[in-house]
Amino acid sequence: MANYGIKISQAGYDVSSANLRQLIISSQYPFLKAYSQGSFSLSITGPGTYTQEIAHNFGYPIKFVHYFSVDPTATSNRFLGIFGADAPFGTIACESWQDSNKIYIAWEDTSDAPGGFKTYPYTVYGYYYLFYDSIT
User: Fold this and answer.
1) CA-to-CA distance for 25 and 118, rounded, in angstroms?
2) The whole model's pTM is what?
3) 22 SS3 class
4) Nearest in space to 101 (alpha carbons), one of 50, 64, 67
5) β-bridge pairing 23-26 and 48-55
6) What per-residue confidence (pLDDT) applies to 116?
7) Mean pLDDT by 10-residue block, N- to C-terminus, for the chain (136 residues)?
8) Diameter of the chain by CA atoms?
9) What is the rounded distance in angstroms from the CA atom of residue 128 to the CA atom of residue 123?
């Protein structure tokens, strides 16, 4: 490895001789540059698709990641990225898309009332991270 840039090794490894698997960070490889992060909640009142818009105004499609949680205090039931589950009661899904200035993050529940996933109404909590990097 070159002797320039940033390298951080795992505990117990000398950064000057550590191999790539022993490093936490190496600027030899590009990594995402964070722009912003945030959260929102959607109140699900019945079957349908509920969408949150997040503006970034860069003028180009960016890299991003998101997830939903039904119970923000639990570490389980977090739905990362695009998720879908079909069951006898309907479909539960989260999805996302974007244009050159906005991210759209949606939760879809097509369950019959009172709701096969959760009893209506219920709330889902969305979390997202936006990066400066273009997807192209």
Assistant:
1) 41
2) 0.75
3) helix
4) 64
5) unpaired
6) 64
7) 75 92 86 92 92 96 90 71 70 89 92 72 91 88
8) 63
9) 17
For the chain, give every domain's residue range.
1-31, 32-134
Q: What amino acid occupies position 79?
A: F
The topology (CATH level 3) of 32-134 is: Immunoglobulin-like (2.60.40)
Spell out the residues 6+ positions from residue 16 whose beta carbon is closer than 8 angstroms to its own. none
CA distances (Å), origin 101, targets 42, 98, 133 = 21, 8, 13
Dist. CA 133–CA 30, nearest whole Å:
10
In this structure, what token pair is assigned to residue 35? 């722009």
First-residue to last-residue Cα distance in the chain: 28
Task: Please compute Rg for the chain using Cα positions.
Answer: 20
Beta strands in 27-89 (DSSP E): 34-44, 48-55, 62-69, 78-80, 83-87
Give the residue among 89, 14, 95, 15 at the shortest CA–CA distance from 52. 95
Residue 9 CA to residue 20 CA, distance in Å, equals: 9
